[in-house]
Amino acid sequence: MPTLSPRAGFWTAAAVAALALWSSAAPTLAYPLYEAQWGISSADATWIFSAYPAMLIVVLVLFGNLSDYIGRRNTILLGLGAQIVGTLVFAFAPGYAWLIIARLFIGAGVGLALSPASVAMVEFAAPEKKASAGSITTTATAVGLALSTLVGGALIQYAPFPLHLNFFVLAAVTAVVMGFAFALPRHNPTEPTGRWRVRPIAIPKGSRGLFGIGAITISAAYLCGALILPLGAQIAHTLAGSTNALVTGALMAIFPVMVAAGSLLTRSWNTRTLIFTAGITLIVGLWLFDLTGSVASLALYFIASAFAGLGYGLSFTAGLTVLTRYAAPKHRASMVSGGYLIGYVFQGGAAPILGAITTGSGIRAALLVGAVSYTVIFLLMMFSARRLGAPAEVTA
Q: Where are the strands (E) in the chain, listed by range?
C-alpha cells in the first residue's frame, strides 16, 4: 500500500481526532432512552460517561509515550481498533453493565489514538501551518462532536433501532478512517533508540511550568465537557422543553459549532489572550446554563451553549498549542499525553459528582454547584496565563 503524502496524512490524523470526540459523545442522546427503557438514573448515566475518562487515564499513564517508539501509525491503528470494538458493544449491549464495558473500550481506543493523532498533525503540517495545527485539531474534534449530536439525533428520532443504528454507523465510519490510517508513514520523523517499556510520562524540565499552564487550560475545556456531554440532553429536555432527539441534537450541536468557530477565527491571537478570553466565555456560559434552571427557554439554552462552546474551543486550542510548541519532537507525545491525562482526571472526577447531585438534589442544584466550582478553576487558569511568554517553538 502506498504511503500517504504529508497533506493526506495531516487530514487522516484530523479524521482520527474527530472520531475520538464522535466516539466519546455518541451515547449522549441515547441516555434519555436508556433511562426510559432500562430505568437507569442520571447518576448511572454519568458513571457510564466516567468509565471513558477512567480507562483513558490508565491508558495514558501506561502507554502515553507508546507512539514515540512504535510510530504514530501503529498506535493510531490500535486505538481505532479498540474504538470499533467499543462501538459494537454499545450496538449490541443487552444491559447497563455492557454500556460500562463499551465505554471502557472506547476510552482505551481514544487514549491510544488521540495523542499520536494530535502530534501527527503537527509533524505532517507544512512549516508555515505548524502554528495553526492546534486550532485545526480543535476544529476536527468539534466536527466529531457535532456529527455525534446531529447524526445521533436524526437516527434516534427518525430511524429504526434507535439504540443500535447510531453505533453501527459510527463503527462503519471508523473502519473507513482505519483504512486510510493503514497508509500513514510507519515511523516518526524522530524516534528514540531502544525498545518501548512502561515508564512515567516524561515532561522536559525546562517546560514543566508551561506544561502546568497547558494542562490546566485543557482541563478547563474538559470540565466544561463533563457538564454538557452527560447532562446536556437532560438539560434540554428538562429545562428547555425539548422532546425531539434531533432538536436536542441540533441544540447541542451549537456547542461544537462554536468550538470550531472560536478555534478558527482566533488563530492569529497569542496564547495568553486565548486563555483570558476562554476563561471569561466559559464563566459566562456556565452561569447562563445555571440560569436555565430558573428560565426554561430554548433561546437561553442556545446562548449558553454558544458561550460554553466558544470557551471550550479557545481553551482547548490554547492548551494544545502550549503542549505541542514548547516540547522537543522526541517528547511531544509524552507532553500531549500528560496534558490529556490531567484533563481527563478532572473530567472523570467531575462527571459522577455532578450526576450524583442531579440524582439526589435535581439538575438545577448540579448546575449551580458546577458553575461555582468551575468558576474558581477558570479563574486559576486565567491567573496562570500571566506567566506565559511569547510562543517559541522547540525544534530539537
A: none
Of the candidates 169, 235, 257, 171, the residue with the CA atom closest to the CA atom of residue 31 = 235
Grid cell for residue 281: 466565555
Q: Hey, what domains does the chain have and what are their CATH numbers? A: 6-187+204-387 (1.20.1250.20)
Look-up of cell digits 511568554: 389
The grid coordinates of residue 331 equal 517528547
Calpha distance 223→244 (Å, rounded): 27
CB distance 384 to 274 below 8 Å: no
- In this structure, the number of other CB atoms found within 10 A of the CB of residue 237 comes to 19
pLDDT of amino acid 361: 86
The pLDDT assigned to 385 comes to 83
Cα distance between residue 126 and residue 162, in whole Å: 42
8-state DSSP, 391: -
Average predicted confidence (pLDDT) for the chain: 84
Q: Do residues 16 and 80 make contact, with C-beta atoms less than 8 angstroms apart?
A: yes
pLDDT above 70: residue 245: yes
**Predicted confidence band of residue 392 (pLDDT cuts 50, 70, 90):** very low
- pLDDT for 189 equals 57
Using CA atoms in the order 281, 287, 291, 297, what is the torsion angle rounded to 10 degrees?
A: 30
Place of cell 510548541: 325
* Number of residues that make up the chain: 396
User: Nearest 5°: phi and psi at 318?
Assistant: -65, -45
Instruction: Using alpha carbons, list the distances in angstroms from residue 394 to 202, 324, 331, 359.
Output: 16, 9, 11, 48
Q: Report pTM.
A: 0.79
